[in-house]
Each structure stands twice: as C-alpha cells, then as structure tokens.
Design goal:
Largest sheet: 5 strands, parallel
Pfam family, one: Lipase_GDSL_2
Number of domains: 1
InterPro entries: Ester_Hydrolysis_Enzymes (IPR051532), SGNH_hydro (IPR013830), SGNH_hydro_sf (IPR036514)
CATH topology: Rossmann fold
Order of helices and strands: HEHEHEHEHEHHH
GO molecular function: phosphatidylcholine lysophospholipase activity
Oligomer: single chain
Helix content: 40-55%
Number of helices: 8
Protein name: Lysophospholipase L1-like esterase
Organism: Cohnella phaseoli
Strand content: 5-15%
C-alpha cells in the first residue's frame, strides 16, 4: 500500500496525471460509465473537494515509447505531484524479444518523473481473456507484467498490481474473464470498477 497522503508529503492540494493507453483513455469500452481514472477523480472530489484534481492523459495504442515522447508535453510541464502510469498491453504486441526495451523505457520514464520532482506510480494492466486468438501475445504479455514488477522493485517505484487483482477475481469467479471485459483486452465498466477499487486500496482511499 502507498498512502496518497504520504506521497503528497502532507500537502492538502494535489494534481495527479494518469498516463496510459486505451485502457486509461475514457472511451466506449465502459458504455458511458466512468473508467478507473474518472472514478479516482470522483473519489478525490468527494474526499477533498477541488483541492486534488486528476488529468486523464491516456491515448489509445500508446506504448512506453510514445509515453516517453509525450511525457513532458502531457504530464511533466504541469508540474504534477503524482504521475500514475498504466502501460504494457500494446508493448506486448511486439513479442517477448522487446521485453528488455520495455523495461529500459520504463526506467527512463521513472528517471524523468523523478528529475521533474514528481512521484511515479506504476499500475499493471488487466489480464486478457480466452477469446484472444494471437498466441504470441498470450505468451509474451505475462513477461511484460513481470518486467514491470521487477522494475518497481529495483527502482523502488510504487506498484499497484491490477493484473494480480484480476487474476484473484478469476480464481474466485472463473466467468469474470468475460463479465469484466468488453473485448479480449479492454475492461468494461465492471472491470474498471475492479481497477478503481484496487487503486483505492493501494492509495488507502477506501474509507
């Protein structure tokens, strides 16, 4: 758990930028409901009023390469207190051979965020479901999740493990691989509810 209050150093005002791909971007997969970023903003508004604001900077199809390219423009120029990054789904499309490049890109992102004076939170993306036909993605994707976990440990970057939360839910409710997903890789509104709940617990915002 990484308490948000500790990350903010006691400040009563905060600006959080959420970076990522189409899973972070507010789009059609949640059928008009708030995704996990919108739910975080709603939670903070209820708890703290307008003193803590959230910017959704998710862009469909992004990989860590695109995140690096737009990190200054879409996040760091605003001098955010916290940058939350969920990434890896699209990187895994490049196969197992690009895992080290993914890890290197994450390290560069972490260094840039630190140098800007902001705090970084990494979030693993959700699991994929059995309808995904591309076996090489099914094989490579867990390697990217593990790379993110390893980077988190090596560089002491807080990690909210959404992937693990989806796995635990699937163990209890096998059909959740269908009920939480809008397609083989994008969570629906119920999947985003689980993502938000996982993030709230991680940030100690459940009360």
């Amino acid at each position: 758990m990484q308490r948000l209050s500790e990350m903010l150093g006691g400040a009563d005002q905060a600006f959080i930028v959420c970076l990522g791909d189409s899973i972070t971007e507010q789009n059609e997969h949640t059928h008009g409901k708030l995704n996990y970023v919108g739910q975080l903003q709603e939670k903070l508004l209820k708890r703290f009023g307008r003193r803590q604001l959230v910017l959704n900077a998710g862009v469909s199809d992004d990989t860590t390469r695109e995140i690096l390219e737009r990190l200054d423009r879409d996040a760091l120029r605003f001098q955010p207190h916290v940058v939350a990054l969920m990434i890896g789904m699209n990187d895994s499309l490049r196969g197992a051979g690009e895992v080290q490049q993914f890890k290197s890109n994450l390290s560069s992102i972490a260094e840039k965020v630190r140098s800007a004076g902001s705090k970084l939170i990494l979030l693993t993306p959700n699991t994929i479901n059995a309808s995904l036909e591309e076996n090489f993605i099914r094989d490579s994707y867990p390697l990217y999740i593990q790379a993110m976990r390893e980077l988190s440990g090596a560089e002491q970057v807080p990690l909210c493990d959404v992937y693990q939360a989806f796995e635990e839910r699937r163990e209890k409710e096998p059909n959740s691989q269908w009920t939480l997903m809008n397609d083989c890789i994008h969570p629906n509104e119920y999947g985003h509810d689980l993502m938000a709940e996982t993030l709230f617990r991680f940030l100690d915002l459940t009360a």
